[in-house]
Amino acid sequence: MLILTSTTLEGKKITKHHGLVTGDALLGANLYKDMFSGVRDVVGGRTTKYEEELKSARNLAIESMRQKAEEKGANAIIGTFVSYNNLGSTMGNTIMVTVYGTAVSFQE
After folding, report:
1. Spans of the chain, pLDDT less than 70
2. What is the pLDDT of residue 9?
3. Does domain 2-106 have CATH number 3.30.110.70?
4. pTM > 0.85
5. Residues with Cβ < 8 Å from 77, sequence gap 6 or more?
6. Do the Cβ atoms of 57 and 27 come closer than 8 Å?
7. CA 12, CA 18: separation in Å to the nearest integer?
8. What pLDDT is recorded for position 87?
9. Could you tell me where the DSSP H helices lie in 43-101?
10. What is the pLDDT of residue 17?
């Protein structure tokens, strides 16, 4: 399955637009990780644990979107966009990763 940020498939003919597909993943942070990440940020280090968790959440969201496109019979997703939203105090310190794009079929 091709997953692209562009809205076209260069050199390929899109034969069908299946519509919007989305994927979401929630990333919850806990107090201890928050505290140690804050200390690391103050002394200039990178918060690699958060980076790993964001990558994992993004991959889960992309996989969910890919499965939905596959169920529609698509073999590509174009116009893919990734969004990160902090749900703040309503859900603790939770980040929602959302990906979306247009599921299409193209001639191979």
Report:
1. 29-47, 89-92
2. 93
3. yes
4. no
5. 1, 2, 3, 4, 21, 65, 66, 69, 101, 102, 103, 104
6. yes
7. 16
8. 79
9. 48-71
10. 98
Give the total residue count for the chain: 108
Query: Which residue in the block uniquely carries the two structure tokens 């309503």?
Result: 90
The kind and range of the H/E element at 42 are: helix 31-42
DSSP 43: T
Position 105: which residue type? S
- The number of C-alpha atoms within 13 Å of 17 and in the hemisphere containing its C-beta is 9
Domain boundaries, the chain: 2-106
Q: CA 30: distance to chain centroid?
A: 21
Decide: 26 and 96 in contact? Cβ < 8 Å. yes
Which residue type is seen at 93?
N
Cβ–Cβ < 8 Å for 91, 11: no
Instruction: Give me the pLDDT at residue 93, please.
Output: 72
